[in-house]
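re: ur question from the group chat, yeah i did fold both. here u go
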Amino acid sequence: DHTLLQAIARVNRPYENEAQEMVKPHGFVLDFVGIFDKLEKALAFDSDEINAIVKDLKLLKVLFKNKMASKALDYLGLIERNFNDKDVDTLIEHFRDPERRKEFFKEYKEIEMLYEIISPDAFLRPFIGDYGTLSAIYQIVRKAYTRTVMVDREFQAKTNNLVQQQVGSYGVGGLGEIVAIDGNTIELIKNKSGGDGTKVINLIKSIEKLAEEGSDDPYLIAMAERARAVQESFEERQTSTAEALADLLREVEGNETRKKEQAEKSFDGLTYFVYRSLLDAKIQNAESVSRKIRHAFTEFPNWKRSENAIRELRKKVTFAIFAETDDLNRVTAMVDELFTLLEKADRI
């Protein structure tokens, strides 16, 4: 019985790699000789102890069937039109609440795990359509509300194959679409098909993508922060879908205005952000000070990797502003805000 116990333990050993989003929650034993029929005798344990470590596939099939007939039905009822724009918007609206999403993700992952264990099996044939639909719902909700979705690791292997075969025909490509943030964005969004919920999600992801690509531009980083604040307010139902969309379109409009002013002064993103911050703080000679600060950054190109470099850089930035005002607390707050934003660029 030691050898048998050791085999079961090794097969059942869980594995998890958070970085790669890989999870092995269970083992699978194929009993060729029928030893599991008399497992209590083989291991000299009582049935309760055996049931704690080994589940018969028949029991898992019953559990899968029960979950598909109860919990899953509530989610399947959200789809009325084969995943058209209206259905996608319904899902975005229904799952705005993070707790509701958390509950759905937990339920889905339990069903997915059972499917992965049981498949392939003729028992699953009556459930394939509904399970495929449930997987499509999961894919849409994850795509809408998760910042980074590793598509190839989103599902376990067998489910992924099913999704590729089945979900591809549902036509849900509009969600997660990255739109260019420029002078045409507002008109493009207004004329685009799909509900406002989808537009809100797509705009937030597009602004985040823009900030990621322009990670040396504090204005874009701050813009992405504000977009995330809109998303949080949207998810917590503090703002309506229409209000969230209007807020995001104002961000796009504000970005176009600043691009024109930035071009007129021949500033790069960093210099313009410092310039605007100085103007807002009513610091004298804002243009001259912002150019000095830009020059300081060129002197210390490795400031993100060197403690000594960032210390010297912060000192130069502080002195450049302090030369125009004797309010040290205000200067310190401005310098902290600038470097906090630049450090956030690595986490976008």
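okk and heres the other one u asked abt
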Amino acid sequence: MKRALELLRESEYLKSCQGDSIVTYAKFLKNGRIFKEELCNSWKLLGSCSKLELENITIPVEGNCLSFLQYQNFAKYFHKEFKSNISQPIVFQRINLDPKRKQDSLLQIKSSNTVSLVRDYFIHSSRARDTYYNIQRERKIWWMRYSADPSRYVVGTLDPSKYIEGCLENYCQAVTIKSLFSDDAIIMETIVWAELNPTRNVNNISNIGVSVVRSVVDLNLATIGLLLDSAAHGCGRNVKVNQKLAPYQCLLMPY
């Protein structure tokens, strides 16, 4: 830490010139917001398939990551597109701002808004299982690249019955990608695979089996998890920083 602080001082990273005077400061909140924006922009660029941005359409994510399965009009957002294109996944991605959602995570964020990054993959049921596991692997690797200790990231199962009242009409699986700390864990992302009711193909000749794989990231919580990564890796008083996050993580040291 001493060496890191010396480098910060030498580079004047924590200083600002105001007129003829130099003021020492650390804009922790500002830098956290900048990193959150960078994380969000990186998320938008994920994947090689074409994505449909739903900036003007609200698809509820209230309650929890599985509540959408009980939303009666959920299917109307994809049926039209899926009928005419079943050769590849139809991907919807959007950023949801929910001021009412309660925090039930490791860290109780005192914020009026919760920002959720949501991506839905609508696919033919015959390819759903492979897609589900491929997304899990890709997303875990993506998070690991932000860490100085990649082994802290694990995939754990999630029991849908604990989050949804009553029985699900169709098959459903869910997992979480967690960042493990000494006494708890932060959920960085939740991934859900669910079978939906069949839809008619473009010629209305036969039914098409449809599945959805949904990925949900709580942007505020994920940002905090990544920034705290440097200070909680079980190496005593030493600090590990990630190459991408070093300018942001270093600001945690004085605190």
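fwiw on the second one: The chain has one domain: 51-238. The longest strand covers residues 185-200. idk if thats what u expected
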